[in-house]
Amino acid sequence: MAISSSDSADIEQDVDETSPLLTNQHEQKWKPPKGFMWIEVAIFANVFLTGFDGTIMASTYALISSEFSAANTASWLTTSYLITTTAFQPLYGRFSDIFGRRTCFFIAGTSFMIGCLGCAVAQTVWVLNLMRAVTGIGGGGLMTVATIINSDLIPFRKRGIYQAVQNVLFGFGSICGASLGGVIADTIGWRWCFILQVPVSLLALGVGYFAIKNPEKFGHDALDAEDQRSVWRKVDIAGSALLILSLSAQLVALSLGGNELPWSNVWVITTLVGSVVLLGLFVLVEAKTKALPIIPLRMLRGFRPIATQLANVFFGMAAYAFLFQVPLFFQVVLGESASRAGSRLIIPSLATLIGGVIAGVVMSRWGKLASLVRAGAFLMTLGNVLVATFEFHDSGWKYIVYLFPANLGQGMAYPSTLFTFLAIFDHSADHAVSSSTVYLIRSLGTVWGVAITSAITQNVLKARLPGALSGIPDKWRVIDEIRHSVGALHQLPPDVEMRARMVYYEGIRLSFIASSGFALVGFIAALFTRGRGLERS
């Protein structure tokens, strides 16, 4: 049955007024089950990898794409991963209810590890992009399954402190990726950035094999008495296929439009229209399916869920647009190496960690979900606006101080948005699919943010480089090299290099302005979110 905004309010009132004392006493007496520490080691290793992979790619993607002479399609190293992450993320929530947490844990970890190995040995940019997509199939489940497993084990009101630990591990992974990515790429080679993730994946899989078991029951999805045919009847195969195809078509069009092909190209238009049609069919299937829907539409009805998810999607857009444009700014505008540009991500990664700890502690002790969401949104907006004010030649202290607020806000906004959405629905029955829905919507934002800002930068280069480089020999060949390789800038005469870097700066600055707009919309949506604290059992 659909839940309206008034229904949601009634739910909150019921929770506040009728929560049994016995339930509260049970939560207060809760103790971690046997083997809990090893379970946390397994899932937190995957959380670490999620943070590590994100920043290690941010600090090296320009160098990697330049080696393959594909800087103009560098965003595909990110979007190929994010497309599959986004498309498969919601599947983990529902499939973990059907096939069990353990199965989904191993599917996610194994796919991620195989993808990393494939990236390490890729000899062409197409194979590399393909293996990044395979990595994304697993990456979509690393954080999602970790959140779901902890939701099974830990009472909702006690989740705050464990979420703080999860945030610390994610932030620590981000710091390691930021500090090591560029150094590894500049010394022993970028392929080691992927190879070094494999042992951590093996650790998670090995510990998880012995520690992670399925709960005896998954609420209404208990499988003990069912045969395999009954199990597969629960799988929303049509919805899953339509979701994957619609998201993939849309994101391919966003990546190609205005970059490889003009927006008026028939393939771009056809792909965009096709994605809308497929998404409409997905909604229709989800409304009528007799299987367990991938995204129950009732979770996207009502004022509170919509406001929360609007904030969520724009947080994702702003965060990843910021993350992937900042190192490009330092490599192109300041002429820094990949290692130096990557090391500058340590400050924002540390800020994300601090924000996550603040969010975890506040949620654990006081709740205050809506306040956390709004504070995080304000800081994200402030940080993006500050970075958009970078001049071509600016004071060195700004490159440190201005990077801090956006990521501090992200560390606060991400977990508080998740818990704000979880608190709307029945925790015991819906926490897996509601968690995966939050990660899906956020991932959509991350892909849109990267695709849109990358398109902005490349369109500025395409439009303004011919005028900026007029009069030089082989102008079109030089322009093509600049768009395909950031390293080509350093091979130009000093005056020509300066003109090309100035055009790059204009494109990157427009991208920062766009990310500021994303963050502002997220902040406005956050003003309409409501959270009653961690009050569900």
For this entry, give a set of tags.
537 residues, mainly alpha, 2 domains, 77% helix, disordered N terminus
Question: According to CATH, what is the class of the largest domain?
Answer: Mainly Alpha
Number of helices: 21
Give me the CATH superfamily of the largest domain.
MFS general substrate transporter like domains
> Which range does the strand content fall in?
under 5%
List the helices and strands in order. HHHHHHHHHHHHHHHHHHHHH
Short account of what is shown:
With about 525 residues, the protein is mainly alpha-helical. It contains 21 helices and no strands.
Q: Can you characterise this structure?
A:
The chain has 537 residues and is an all-alpha fold. It is built from 21 helices and no strands. It has helices at residues 5-18, 21-29, 36-67, 75-98, 101-121, 125-153, 159-187, 191-195, 197-211, 228-233, 237-256, 266-288, 303-332, 338-343, 346-365, 369-388, 398-401, 404-422, 427-468, 475-484, 494-526.
